[in-house]
Design a protein that fits this description.
- With 90 residues, this protein is mainly α.
- The protein folds into two domains: 34 residues; 30 residues, no CATH class.
- The chain contains three helices and no strands.
- It is rod-shaped.
- The N and C termini lie far apart (93 Å).
Amino acid sequence: MCAVGPAGWSTASMFASSLGSVLLLAPLGAFVWWATAVGNRRGPLGQTAAPMTSGPIEILRERFARGEIDVATFEEQVTHLLRTDRAPGQ
């Protein structure tokens, strides 16, 4: 004869119920883990992130935006980069 627990449930039926809950929640937990791992590799709408490489003008823009260089320095360095970019023989 089986022992009877609270609300008239036998020990075997309580074990089966607990096991069923775990078997139901384990795949759900695995899916949430997988979706989080995949989501971390993509942008907000599922696009892959752009490469992190920046050109020299983009770096100057970022430095200017952060206040590291003033307007005169920014314009001087951009002009210099554009001038050397169009050097003869290239």
